[in-house]
Design brief:
The protein has about 200 residues and is α/β, with parallel strands linked by helices. A 5-stranded mixed β-sheet has the order 3-2-1-4-5, with helices on both faces.
């Protein structure tokens, strides 16, 4: 069975999701998408279930066919300033603010959200696997963030961000042990389990 096309029929809905919440390095990205009910996109799914190639193909289709979309980020420094949960919500707010026209309902992936203006919202756990608009937002957030991480990988190739995208893999943590931290690392996160051994 495919993903649902809407939560509340007849309302202009924007799906919202983020990418990069659990990473040790790099920004958190968020996206908001209002899909066109008259121009469906085949194959929308939770971005984690798709291959890189499928995500990239769907990204261009979403950006061409959506009625409106926004993509925004908060840097690792802003994450350290706000905490990651709040930074995720603020990135969503920035993405929603880029939409042309105001949606009547926000569909938020997850179980919490800070209200945006006076727009009604629904929090939906695993929403990216349930609703097309949230799946579309998850694909945009993920692909835009991956492109950012690929780009900064060129500056710091020893951390293998082109493979781990800043997530806490064994290789990423080993590189932090060996080389220390970069301006892109999140200092509010436990970068390696024993923080005392971290060369600052």
């Amino acid at each position: 069975m495919g993903l649902k096309r809407y939560f509340s029929k007849g309302l202009i809905e924007a799906g919202c999701d983020e990418a990069g919440r659990g990473c040790l390095a790099g920004p958190v990205f968020a996206a908001a998408v209002i899909l066109d009910p008259n121009n469906p996109i085949v194959g929308l799914d939770d971005s984690k279930k798709l291959s890189d190639k499928q995500r990239e193909k769907l990204r261009s289709e979403i950006e061409q066919k959506a009625l409106s979309y926004g993509v925004a980020m908060l840097t690792n420094r802003e994450i350290d300033q706000h905490n990651i949960l709040r930074a995720s919500f603020l990135a969503m707010h920035k993405a929603i603010s880029q939409l042309s026209g105001e949606p009547e309902l926000l569909l938020i992936d997850g179980n919490r959200f800070i209200p945006y203006k006076k727009i009604k919202h629904e929090c939906i756990v695993k929403g990216d696997a349930k609703y097309q608009s949230i799946a579309a937002a998850s694909i945009l957030a993920k692909t835009h963030r991956d492109a950012f991480m690929q780009n900064i990988h060129e500056k710091h190739p020893e951390y293998l961000w082109n493979q781990n995208m800043g997530y806490p893999t064994a290789a990423h943590r080993e590189a932090i042990r060996n080389y220390g931290i970069t301006p892109y690392h999140r200092l509010s996160f436990t970068l390696i389990p024993d923080q005392l051994t971290l060369p600052l």
